[in-house]
Design brief:
The complex is a heterodimer of chains A (215) and B (46).
Chain A: H1 2-18, H2 33-60, H3 63-94, H4 104-117, H5 119-124, H6 129-156, H7 175-214
Chain B: H1 2-45
The chains are: A mainly alpha (215), B mainly alpha (46).
Chain lengths: 215, 46
């Protein structure tokens, strides 16, 4: 899986630099969007998936769902850092500012990011593992439902300077740009799954080790 | 402009490399601890 993920990522990067045309309006700076937007989509989907996993933990009491939810949030935060940094770089090149406070898309994403940044300190502030998992799951479910609501509110807001990549009209990207974007989206989604499995594997091995130490 | 695009992609790659390196380090630590645990177990059996 990691090989497929690396190959797809390499293909995506090759398409970005050697196949996708330079945007007539924005110029070469637009090429940032091939990683910025997929990372944002995957990170937000990750937060919502973590909410579903947390809900499953609350329903079943199976600790594996709590670990899955935790790892998904952890990875989504890493991607969210990438979204904020690449977005700032794009904004600097395109608008001449690293950050624009009156742009709903930017501020709302920052709020979501900061909200999830409180997840880990909150989780590890509780020493009892049972309570820790339960409180973290409740947090993940509430924060996870906030993500789509936040997205819809931003879409309804007026006065955009942030471009809409996937509008209600289906977007008007030329075919080579759309193909490149879709390959990058699949590559980053697959990379997320690969890294997720790697971290879950590490957590499983650590739990196994703790168990053997106790025996 | 080219420099900014390169910087964005470097950030992306650096994030992934850092994440994989941290995970690889953690796995190596677990593996080492497991080996030490097994060696101790074998030593006490003797």
């Amino acid at each position: 899986m990691s090989l497929v993920s690396a190959a797809l990522l390499a293909a995506g990067l090759a398409l970005v630099f050697f196949y996708a045309p330079v945007d007539a309006d924005q110029g070469v700076i637009q090429k940032i969007f091939y990683i910025h937007v997929p990372m944002a989509i995957v990170a937000l989907c990750g937060f919502m998936a973590a909410a579903v996993m947390a809900a499953r933990y609350l329903r079943t009491g199976d600790r594996r769902w709590d670990v899955r939810s935790y790892v998904t949030i952890h990875l989504s935060i890493v991607l969210a850092v990438g979204v904020l940094v690449t977005g700032s770089i794009w904004a600097h090149g395109s608008w001449g500012h690293w950050w624009v406070w009156n742009e709903p898309a930017l501020v709302s994403f920052l709020i979501v990011f900061l909200l999830y940044c409180t997840y880990q300190p909150l989780r590890f502030a509780i020493s009892d593992p049972e309570r820790q998992a339960r409180y973290a799951a409740v947090f993940a479910v509430i924060a996870g439902t906030f993500v789509p609501v936040n997205f819809v509110v931003v879409r309804l807001a007026q006065a955009y300077t942030h471009p809409r990549v996937l509008g209600t009209t289906g977007g008007n990207m030329p075919a080579p740009m759309r193909l490149t974007f879709l390959v990058c989206l699949c590559a980053i989604a697959l990379l997320f799954v690969t890294l997720w499995r790697l971290e879950i594997g590490a957590k499983g091995a650590a739990a196994g080790l703790r168990l053997r130490m106790r025996e | 402009m080219n420099g900014l695009v390169a910087a964005a992609y470097v950030v992306f790659v650096a994030l992934i490399v850092a994440y994989v390196a941290i995970m690889a380090g953690r796995l190596a630590r677990i593996e080492r601890a497991l080996r030490e645990h097994d060696d101790r177990g074998r030593g006490s059996e003797r």
